[in-house]
Amino acid sequence: MRTSPLHEHFGIEIHDVDLRDVTAKRLYPEIRAAFEEHTLLLFRGQSLDAAEHRRIATLFGPPEDLTDAAPGATPARPMVSNLKDSGAVAAADDLQLLNLQANFIWHTDSTFLPTPAISNVLVACVLPDRGGNTEFASTRNGWAAMDPALRAAARDKVFIHRYAHSRQMIDPVLGRQEMFTKYPDQPWRSTWTNPLNQREALLIGGHVCAVVGMTATAGRALVDDLTAAVTRPEDIYSHCWRDGDVLIWDQRAALHRGQPWPYAQERTLASIVSSAVEADGIASAGVARAQRHQIKTKENRTWPG
Q1: Rounded Cα gap, residues 150 and 226, in angstroms
Q2: Which of 111, 124, 300, 305 could bridge 245 with an S-S bond, Cβ 3.0-4.6 Å?
Q3: CB 127 within 8 A of CB 243
């Protein structure tokens, strides 16, 4: 495949591939190898409908469903959009728009679930005339290049991930919505090792609400320092969307965030996140059952709500 770099340290554009032609045996092995090596993949000029989008996402892993679709039913294509069901764009104080603004915090998708994500296949649908970029930073390169003292402080730490936490940071009412509070907190180790190349990546993001064994203040300071270390301006790739763009990235090795746009204009992306499987190295980030029980007990006693 013909490729070109997106950033000095990670990310490539793959040229001359129509994702509708990709199957498990045709081109996907090469795409998956590029995914493992480069973390972020860009395909331009695509025409994926909902069925093709889901088919491509399924190649990477089982698609998530956060909508609780009926057993056996295909969930609706998840849309990241400020367009309401009425056809109007969401107002500035609308919870739908506030939820999108929570995505402006550096994060990794779905770390609040018992099974973390391996990928996101994100498709441009309706774009504003300016703004609305999606930014990425490599937590694998960032971890390798980190100041050794900071890396040592983070190694073997356990982070607690809570969906409502990232929403609470934007608006207290948003953070209390049942769609965010229904998920139990999830503990994950601070790094995830890719089993194919044995490279570690920092597993962090806006869902982290606590660090086991640290006070709330000290834990927040550590998370902030780590996030800043892997998201320096020179380490960020900012993607300016075009019609037909598809981005696919490795959730094990990247942080991402959205950027503002003129909110009177619609911005709609279609996002299908796929769950990791054991072969993706989940165990390297997992926490043993006995330790999980101790963490849960401590949470009930001392952690902030």
Answers
A1: 7
A2: 124
A3: yes
